[in-house]
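User: Quick sanity check before I run a bigger batch. Here is a single chain. Can you write out its predicted 3D structure?
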Amino acid sequence: MIVHHLEKNDSILNKFIAEIRDVSIQKDSLRFRRNIERIGEILGYELSKSLAYKAIDITTPLGTKKINLAQKDVVLCSILRAGLPLHQGLLNYFDDSENAFISAYRHHPNNETDFEIAVEYFAAPSVEGKTLLLADPMLATGQSLVAVHEAIKKQGIAKEIHIVIVIGSTEGIDFIKKHFPTNTHLWIAAIDDELNDKGYIIPGLGDAGDLAFGPKL
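Assistant: Done. Predicted structure follows.
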């Protein structure tokens, strides 16, 4: 897996990451969603540099100009519900992509510590031979992403996979490296080293879905 860690190089991205982490600012759910969206735009821009391009003739009022444009084979898939603001940020740049949505959540059958990943909803076009952008704001243990990838493979095998993450853990990255193709690209804004005993990222930011859309039952 090829890891692109954007926070290693200082940029305006730092401001948006700081605000989604800050307990006094993240209480504003509108601003939290917008910051996730803006991070998605930055990740999408960096990701776009690695795609395949083709020279296209563009007709202007005064002539013709060749411009290299990305080939239109992108499927953008986000994990519900936390992935929606990140999805929108990516869609702002990949506005002609096909779209897919999949649900994945931690199901605790016995207690609060042990969990399994439940995937219950999937709406998607075929991904066969296409470029798959798989977006989720948080990469904790990595189990959700692996479960989602297994479900998506039923719609075909992507030509290439780009995973887009806002904050991830070192452990989660190591886990998905074992389950995704070696040529998979991981585009991640920030990396934290720790998980607590419940599998949440430390220091992280809390529950991205709750911060964006309110507490769930």
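The first helix runs from residue 13 to 21.

User: Great, the batch can go ahead then.
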